[in-house]
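Researcher: Please translate sequence to structure tokens.
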Amino acid sequence: MRRENQSSVTKFLLLGLPIRPEQQSVFFTLFLAMYLTTVLGNLLIILLIRLDSHLHTPMYFFLNHLAFSDISLSSITVPKMLMNIQAQQHSISYNGCISQMYFFVLFGCLDNFLLAVMAYDRYVAVCHPLHYITVMRKEVCVSLVAGSWLFCCVHALLIRLSFCSNNTIPNFFCDLTALLRLSCSDISLNKLVIFTEGGLLFILPLSSILGSYIHIGSTVLRDPSTKRFFKTFSTCGSHLFVVSLYYGTLAGVYFFSSFQNASDKDIVASVIYTVVTPLLNPFIYSLRNRDIKQALEIFVTKAKSFK
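Model: Translation complete:
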């Protein structure tokens, strides 16, 4: 890999979504609504966590960062996609494309680690409740989040590519696999890094999540309380659905797709983990949560009292 990105290309052409011209207005309205819901829903979660002292716990500390990461992940790609749906020119500058790829890798990696950390937090709360305050103390929580940020920032800087003449990207954003296909440099080392380090970044958080929920399930099954069983099963089932959707589409795009040819399936998978998953997280992780609902009721009541 070279020390820095070098290229004779000054801009890239994004082909966008495989939709017909007569369908553009429908998809524009749909994705705009989904993006606004994602941003407003996650901003509401961040606001409630900051304002309500009852939500100043490790679980909501992690959720606060996950909400910010989801907003960032969607904002990196969706606004440009919406502009391209409406505009005739689908170009993006070279610096803009490289920046988009960097931040996409950064926040995608951060989502992986935060989901794993949140699963570990639930594991400690359910399986070791008497030691929860000791294990998940403030210093540990800050270290876990700071370590995730630092590691993902370094990881996003590892990819170095150069481009010559071909500048057409068959996607709606500057995806890493698409840029690897366009690169005129030797990508063998880049591919090795992606499949080794990227594989570790994929497998380790996923293993941590599954291991945490397996231990939670076995702990709850030993408890004869039917109410606790169904409550935990409902929460874990929702979380595992999002995890399966997120990791399944990531695996399909980055590990099981060809580096030589892009397909519409890759674009659909990209839509799922850049648009759909950040949209679902507010509902799965918090808006169905009793504490968040109570904080929202208090917030609305106080807002009405100021009128």
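Researcher: Any highlights?
Model: The longest helix spans residues 94-127.
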